[in-house]
Design a protein that fits this description.
heterodimer; A: mainly alpha; 10 helices; flat; B: mainly alpha; two-stranded antiparallel sheet; 2 strands; about 75% helix; Cobalt/nickel transport system permease protein (chain A)
């Protein structure tokens, strides 16, 4: 358990051992379809496909998927509603094509979010970072991102431990105490991150690894059947989305 | 407040990615040069990125009874400077999209432009101005964190207005709508984040003064 439900789901997913490139092809294709196809029926089909694949073959817990989708859902609902409300001299009103516009916006956004969530809940970030090298991102930047990913779980654990202790001491009993506790919490996390980085550096230097934290990437071979099914499935989605 | 996946049309998503790219590439070049000169700083930079991510998990008590989360880019801009924050902020946004389902991949460019470019630069500008006008570290940090938050939110409202203009009043009307809707949460959050920054740096001044001196935020104390 890492403390982040989406990351936990990714490590436990039945697709964990699948090639990250294969999953990027599938999820990238679904995101492209979600954006490019008409909302009805294209985006609806894309969204359904992503949800069915996540909850079915990838065996992502429905509760995790549902909880993760709440954040984008809240933004999409507020954003779509705001975009179709008009403010004029007569007060508030609806835009002439309000239902169509809101439906289209919500469809594209929900389908796209579901496709990204399919990738996020089946592929740990540490599997995706080596792919950045393929996009010609400098090795130093990828390494900083990898250290960020590894350290953030340590810092999250510190954050939860300190906050639990503060809460037990009535640190959040009033708004004023809550602010003081939050400031102390942020400072504790920052100083711990510096301390952790310094100790890691000393440990690595002691082992002669002075150019950083180098690890062998795990090789997860591509599946021809998965890639074929992805291409055929995406082609079917485009055909149905455009012709229906 | 990050723009969700699929919320922007393709042309806007590409446009904002191109707008953010020079700043992120500039930040990446600075990081590459820093790491080449001092390889040990890889871990410090990674720690800075992790701190920015984790800061967004600090619950900020709200005066309305609920709670919200700081963006952390104002503190990052003061501590690590805006060019580095352009890269670290983009990495954090990528991780937020993949680990928390906040934001998205095609909207990463737009979110990076608002939160990793405009926010840190505006916050750092406010910090420098406050210090130049004679303000100490606490007022400077308050200005940096509040302005970074407000600038991020105003930029996001502008991005949404350009993508979704109002049927009657166009982009200007849509900008006013998005500003007023998100102001309900973002204005109190900006003030709260400023206060959090003051408390954060007060604790750091007491407990981590050498680090703040090394980062150039405080003058070294005269030897006794």
């Amino acid at each position: 358990m890492t403390g982040l439900a989406v990351d936990d789901a990714a490590w436990a997913s039945a697709w964990r051992r699948r090639s990250p490139a294969d999953k990027l092809l599938l999820c990238g294709g679904l995101v492209a379809c979600a954006l490019a196809l008409p909302a009805w029926p294209g985006s609806v089909l894309v969204g359904l496909t992503a949800v069915v694949l996540a909850l079915g073959p990838a065996r992502v817990p429905a509760r995790t998927f549902g909880r993760a989708v709440r954040w984008p859902l809240a933004f999409i609902a507020v954003g779509a509603l705001t975009s179709v409300v008009t403010v004029g001299t007569g007060g508030l009103g609806w835009a002439p094509d309000a239902a169509t516009r809101a439906g289209s916006l919500t469809g594209h956004a929900l389908a796209g979010s579901a496709a990204v969530l399919l990738l996020a809940t089946t592929t740990p970030v540490s599997d995706l970072l080596p792919a950045l090298r393929g996009l010609r991102v400098p090795a130093a930047v990828v390494e900083v991102a990898a250290v960020t990913y590894r350290l953030l779980f340590v810092l999250l654990a510190s954050l939860h431990a300190v906050r639990e202790a503060q809460t037990a001491r009535m640190g959040y009993a009033t708004v004023g105490r809550g602010y003081r506790s939050s400031g102390a919490l942020a400072a504790a996390v920052l100083t711990r991150s510096w301390d952790r980085a310094r100790r890691m550096q000393e440990g690595l230097a002691g082992r002669g690894m002075e150019t950083g934290l180098r690890v062998l990437p795990e090789v997860l071979p591509s599946s021809r059947a998965f890639v074929t099914a992805t291409v055929v499935g995406l082609a079917a989605l485009v055909t149905v989305g455009l012709l229906a | 407040m990050h723009i969700a996946e699929g919320f922007l049309p393709v042309t806007h998503a590409v446009g904002w990615t191109l707008a953010a790219a020079p700043f992120v590439v500039h930040g990446a070049r600075q990081v590459v040069a820093e790491v080449r000169e001092r390889p040990e700083n890889t871990l410090l930079l990674g720690a800075a990125g992790a701190f920015t991510f984790v800061l967004s998990a600090v619950k900020l008590p709200s005066f309305t009874g609920s709670s919200s989360h700081p963006t952390g880019t104002g503190a990052g801009a003061v501590l690590f400077r805006p060019p580095v924050m352009a890269l670290l902020g983009t990495i954090v946004l990528l991780f937020q999209a993949l680990l928390l389902a906040h934001g998205g991949l095609t909207t990463l460019g737009a979110n990076a432009f608002a939160m990793a470019v405009v926010g840190p630069w505006a916050g750092y500008g406010a910090y420098r101005l406050t210090r130049r006008l004679g303000g100490g570290l606490p007022p400077g940090v308050f200005a940096a964190m509040a302005v970074a938050d407000l600038a991020t939110y105003v930029t996001t409202a502008g991005q949404l207005a350009l993508a979704l203009p109002d049927a009657g009043t166009g982009v200007a009307g849509a900008f006013a709508k998005f500003l007023s809707v998100f102001a309900l949460t973002q204005v109190p959050l900006a003030v709260g984040e400023g206060l959090l920054g003051v408390l954060l740096f007060r604790v750091l001044t007491a407990n981590a003064r050498p680090e703040l001196e090394r980062l150039g935020l405080l003058r070294p104390e005269p030897a006794r």
